[in-house]
Each structure stands twice: as C-alpha cells, then as structure tokens.
Amino acid sequence: MRGAALKLGQMLSIQDESLVPPPILAALDIVRQGADVMPRSQLNEVLDTELGPDWSTKLLSFDYEPLAAASIGQVHRAVMKNGMEVAIKIQYPGVADSIHSDIENVRRLLDYTNLIPKGLFLDRAMKETRNYVGGKLLELTLMELFVFCFMQTDPNWSNFLYEKEKRMINLIDFGAAREYPKSFVDDYLRMVMACANRDGDGVIQMSRRLGFLTGDESDVMLDAHVQAGFIVGIPFSKLGGYDFRTSNVTHNVTGLGATMLKHRLTPPPEESYSLHRKLSGSFLACIKLGAIVPCRELLLSIYQNHQFSESTLEAASVS
C-alpha cells in the first residue's frame, strides 16, 4: 500500500474492534509501521529520470538505506559536494496517478467495515466538498475581474488554499497580479454574457470593441472565433449545476487555435494574455476536482449587480 490508501490505512489501523473487524485490523497494523521501500533498481531509475544520469557526481555520498518510507515517498540521507548534509525525498513512481483509485478502494473498505454510518453518505459528502470548493474558486475568479478589476493571474493550484474550518478559499502569491481598466472589464463582461447566450453578433461586436478583431476578418476566422467563444460560454449557458467532468472546455478551444492563428489579423489585446491564463487555470481546477458548479447563476449575479460606466453604456447602445 502506498499513496492515499496507505495514509488512510494508517489512520484506520488505530481503531478498535468495535469499528473495524479484527482480520482487517491485523492487516492494517502492518502499514502503520510505514511503506515498503523501493528496490535499488527502481530508486536509481527515479533519480536518473528526475536529476539526470549523472546525479551521483553532484554528491559526496548518498545513503541507499532510507531514513523513512511514508505514503508518497521515502527519505534518504546525502552529503553535498560542499559538505552540507541534506535529506532527499523521493516520490514513488506512479503514486500521483494512483490517488483517485486509492480513494475509491478505501471508500469500499469503509463501506465494508461499516466504519462510516450508512446515513452519512460518504460519496455525497465528498461531492459536496468538491462542488463547494470548485464553486468558490470560480466565484473568486469572476469577482477578481468584474468586481475588483484586479486579478492574481497565476493559476498555480498551490496558490489556492482551502481553509476547511471556515470553508474559505485563500488566494496567495500576488507576484503576477494586475489591474484591468474599467472600460475593458465592462466590455469583457458583455462579451462573456454574449458567449453564454450563444449570441454570435454580440460576441463579434464586443470582440471588435475589445480589440480581438479588426472588422476585416474572413468568415472562416469569424466563425472560429465565435465558436471558441461559445465553447468557453458552455458552463455559463444554462441554469443549474454544470458538471466540469462532462467536457474539457480549454482542450476544446485549443482545437480551434490553428484556424485562428492562421487567419488572425491582429494580436489579442494585451490584457487578455494574463486574464485567459487565469480563466483557463480556474476551469482546469474545476475539471480536476470533478466539481458541479452553478456557473450561470454566479455569472448572472455578477452581471445584474455590475455598475457599467456611462461611457461604455453609450458606446454599447451606439454599436
């Protein structure tokens, strides 16, 4: 056992026989002492892959006997060329990919042992958590752009910290943060609504105002541009929860990229590069979570409470 299964197995091993049957307790008692260590051949393969085949030349010494073996990796003592003693933590190969299957196996174990009461519905409890985190993450992204006009544009998942006790998303690392002009935010919100409503004329109109299009594009380019907008707007197109597991929005847009690159007459507006990186990261996080999020409700709440500037209102009515 390694990965999530080992971690939860260690937790289960300290329960008493009233919760976990004795045969399972006996098996789990073994894992409490730690994981099986990697054989030397596998260890060398991981080190060669991650650090290069000459990794040993960068060290004075490396102890092949691990100090400890845990759920996702093992720790080895080594000495650098300058004499500094270091600990090298080496992740088991394939452990990251096994997390989902490990959780499913442990869920079955919990069901079998009756450790989780029937009325708790473990699957549903885990799904409420995923949906809540995904919804809050996407809501935060929309608010950053359309309410604060200030966005942290690095969507690295480690920059989103979930505080379970307060059920709060904490956003960190503002090294790549930036402001967006009010006129850009107003028109971008109108474009997002046009994408969500599958309003092709609205998408083209706002895209020209924002600088995505010049007005002289070919029909092929216009069609590809509008279709890309419609794909991005899918999560926001219908009321109710959108299941991000049903399709990969960012992957589907990439399929139209070659056409748009070939027929594009002008580069996208400067503001869009960091913005689209953040939006893609938020979508991918929801996909990874397998979250079901009421995206349209979130967008409508933003749109209905948005204070459009007078200048953009007049320009929109003229257009």
Ordered list of secondary-structure elements with their pairings:
Elements lengths: L2 H10 L9 H10 L8 H12 L7 E4 L5 E2 L3 E8 L4 E7 L3 H19 L8 H25 L3 E3 L7 E4 L4 E4 L5 E3 L2 H15 L3 H11 L8 H15 L8 E2 L5 H6 L2 H7 L6 H20 L2 E2 L1 H10 L5 H9 L1
Antiparallel strand pairs: 1-3, 2-3, 3-4, 5-8, 6-7, 9-10
Helix pairs in contact: 1-2, 1-4, 5-11, 5-12, 6-7, 6-8, 8-10
Quickly describe the structure.
It comes from Apostasia shenzhenica. The chain is of the alpha+beta class. It has helices at residues 3-12, 22-31, 40-51, 95-113, 122-146, 182-196, 200-210, 219-233, 249-254, 257-263, 270-289, 295-304, 310-318, and strands at residues 59-62, 68-69, 73-80, 85-91, 150-152, 160-163, 168-171, 177-179, 242-243, 292-293.
Walk me through this protein's architecture.
The chain has 13 helices and ten strands. A hairpin with a 4-residue loop joins strand 6 and strand 7 (168-171). Mean pLDDT is 81; it is low at 13-18. The chain is of the alpha+beta class and 319 residues long. It folds into two domains: 3-55 and 65-75 and 92-113, no CATH class; 177-318, no CATH class. Keywords: ATP-binding, Kinase, Nucleotide-binding, Transferase. One of its GO terms (biological process) is ubiquinone biosynthetic process. Residues 31-130 form the ABC1 atypical kinase-like domain.
